[in-house]
UniProtKB/TrEMBL annotation:
Protein name per UniProt: Coenzyme F420-reducing hydrogenase, FrhD protein
Keywords associated with the record: Aspartyl protease, Hydrolase, Protease
GO biological process terms, semicolon-separated: protein processing
Molecular function via GO: aspartic-type endopeptidase activity; enzyme activator activity
Annotated source species: Methanobrevibacter olleyae
Amino acid sequence: MPYDAGRLVVGCGNVLFKDDGFGPMVIHAIEDYFKENDIEKPEDTQFIDAGTGATHFIFSMPDDNWKKIIVVDVVEWNAEPGTLRLFSPYDMPKGKYENAHTWPVEEPLHDLADRGIEVVIVGCKPGEITAPDVDMGLTEPVEAAIPKAIEMILNEL
């Protein structure tokens, strides 16, 4: 599908570091959801597991044709692990949203929003991020949050 899809849902994170893999796992689960329920994916929407390259991918692609970008990722804030929340780029916890290399990404999200693209973050409070130690698989509360994350994404679409 070309980059002029209209809406983009991007799963961010690294599946090698426990709950940091939440974003990619949600993208795979939503793809399965469409198949298992024999539902056509929205024609104007692209779903991407961007892994750890999400920052580069999102912020270097042509963006003048995107109407909405939904970022799915773990976000550190004062909540119980597995808690989900919709964030705008402007209400992200200051300094708490960084990619795997600890680069803050609030500013690039602000830039996209300032260009008229609707940006929504489906954030999940992680239970455990093991970087730099490899430990695959989500903690129980974060894995249990996947169906609700799918529901939130579908409501945003």
